[in-house]
Amino acid sequence: MSPRPTPPEVDRVAAAQAAVAARRARAAVKKSVADRSRTALDVAETAWAQPHTAEASLRVTELLTSIPTLGPTRVARLMQTLAISDRKRVGGLGTRQRVKLRDYLVTRAGGEPARLVVLAGPTAVGKGTVSAYIRENYPDVLLSVSATTRKPRAGEIDGVHYYFVSDEEFDRMIAADELLEWAIVHNSYRYGTPRPPIDAALGAGRRVLLEIDLQGARLVRRAMPEAILVFLLPPTWEELVRRLIGRGTEDAAEQSRRLETAKVELAAQDEFDVKVVNRDVSEAAREVVELMAVPVSP
Ligand SMILES: Nc1ncnc2c1ncn2[C@@H]1O[C@H](COP(=O)(O)OP(=O)(O)OP(=O)(O)O)[C@@H](O)[C@H]1O
Ligand SMILES: Nc1nc2c(ncn2[C@@H]2O[C@H](COP(=O)(O)O)[C@@H](O)[C@H]2O)c(=O)[nH]1
C-alpha cells in the first residue's frame, strides 16, 4: 500500500491536476473556436455562392457571435477593423469586405489566410507597371519572376523581369514539375511561374504577387483555391489601345493579335474575385496590396 500523501504533497497533486484540467479546457475552447470558425466560413461561402439563401440573409454580427470567445464587445471592435457596418448581412458584403472576413475566419479556423494575389488583365492595361510599382514601394511583397521563351525587350534584365530561357530549358522545367502553372500566351511564347520561390516565400509568411495571364490565373485557382484573383481593368477600351500603341514594343501584327486576346480576357473578368481599374498606378497598386492578408485580431 502506498503511503498517504502529506499536506504539501496533497497541494502539489491538486495543483498538477488543476493545471491538467485547465490545459484540457483551453484545448477544448481552441478546438471549438476552430470548428465554429470553419462552420461560419462554410456559411459565408454558401451565402456568397447562393445569394437567395438563409445564409445570405444572416447578419455578419450573428455569424461572428456564433464563434466562442467572440462576445458583443469584441465583435463590435472586429466589425470596425473589417470596415463592415453593424447592419450588414453576409450576402450583402462587398468584395473587399468578403476577402477580409474570409481571411479572418480562415485564420480562426487554424488555416492560412490568402497571401497570394494573382494579377491578370488584358495586354497593356498596366499589369507590369503596377507590379513594378509594388516591387519598388512594397519590398516585403515577393513579385514572382516568370520564366519565358520570348526574347528580352530593350532594358529587360534576365532574373529581374523574366528568366529568359530556351525552349529546351522550358521543357525541362515542365518535366521536373518546377512550374506552378504555365501557358502559351498570345499564341506565341510560353510563360510559366517557377514554383520553389513561391513555396518558400509563402512558407516564410511573406505576401506574394503573380502577374500572369488569364489561363495561368485559372490554373493557379485550381492549384491554390485560397489565392485571390484580381483583374486589372483599363478606364476605357480606347485607353487600352492607346497604351498598347504608345508602349511601342510590338509591331502592328502583334498589336492586333494582343487586342484579340484582350477581348477574350475582358469577357472573363467576372471569374475574378476583385476588379481594380488602373487609372492611377500608385492607387491601383495600393488597392492590390491591401487585398493581401495581414493578421486581424478583434
Ligand atoms: N495608370 C496608367 N496611366 C497611364 N499609362 C499607364 C498606366 N499604367 C500603365 N501605363 C502605360 O501603359 C503601357 C502598358 O503598360 P504595361 O506594359 O505595364 O502593361 P501590361 O499589362 O503589363 O502589358 P502586357 O500584358 O502586354 O505585358 C505602358 O506604356 C505604361 O507606361
Ligand atoms: N500564364 C502566365 N502568363 C504570364 C507569366 N508571366 C507573364 N505572363 C503574361 O504574359 C503576357 C505577355 O507578357 P509580355 O511581358 O510578353 O508582354 C502578359 O499578359 C503577362 O501577364 C506566367 O508566368 N504565366
Give a brief description:
Helix content is 51%, strand content 13%. It has twelve helices and nine strands.
What does this structure look like?
With 298 residues, the protein is α/β, with parallel strands linked by helices. Helix content is 51%, strand content 13%. It contains 12 helices and 9 strands. It has helices spanning 7-49, 54-57, 60-65, 72-81, 95-108, 127-137, 167-175, 195-203, 214-223, 237-247, 252-267, 281-290; strands at residues 116-120, 141-143, 147-148, 163-164, 179-185, 189-194, 207-211, 228-233, 274-277. The protein has a 5-stranded parallel sheet, sandwiched between helices. A 4-stranded mixed sheet has the order 4-3-6-5. α1 packs antiparallel against α5 (95-108) and α6 crosses α12. The structure holds adenosine-5'-triphosphate and ligand LQESDW3C. Residues 123, 127, 146, 150, 181, 183, 185, 191-193, 211-213, 215-216 line the site of the ligand Nc1nc2c(ncn2[C@@H]2O[C@H](COP(=O)(O)O)[C@@H](O)[C@H]2O)c(=O)[nH]1.
Q: Distance between the terminal alpha carbons, to the nearest Å?
A: 54 Å
Mean pLDDT: 90
The gross shape turns out to be elongated
One letter per element, helices H and strands E, the order comes to HHHHHEHEEEHEEHEHEHHEH
| Small molecules bound | adenosine-5'-triphosphate, the ligand Nc1nc2c(ncn2[C@@H]2O[C@H](COP(=O)(O)O)[C@@H](O)[C@H]2O)c(=O)[nH]1
Judging by the overall fold, what is the CATH architecture of the largest domain? Answer: 3-Layer(aba) Sandwich
Figure out the total of helices: 12
> Any low-confidence stretches, pLDDT <50, length ≥5?
none
The biggest beta sheet is recorded as: 5 strands, parallel
CATH topology annotation of the largest domain? Rossmann fold
Q: Give the strand tally.
A: 9
Kindly estimate the percentage of residues that lie in beta strands according to DSSP. Answer: 5-15%
| Spatial order of the strands forming the largest sheet | 2-7-1-8-9
Q: Which structural category fits the helices and strands?
A: alpha/beta
Q: Give the full name of the CATH homologous superfamily of the largest domain.
A: P-loop containing nucleotide triphosphate hydrolases
What oligomeric state do the depicted chains represent? Answer: single chain
Organism: Conyzicola nivalis
Enzyme class: transferase
Function: Essential for recycling GMP and indirectly, cGMP.
Subcellular location: Cytoplasm
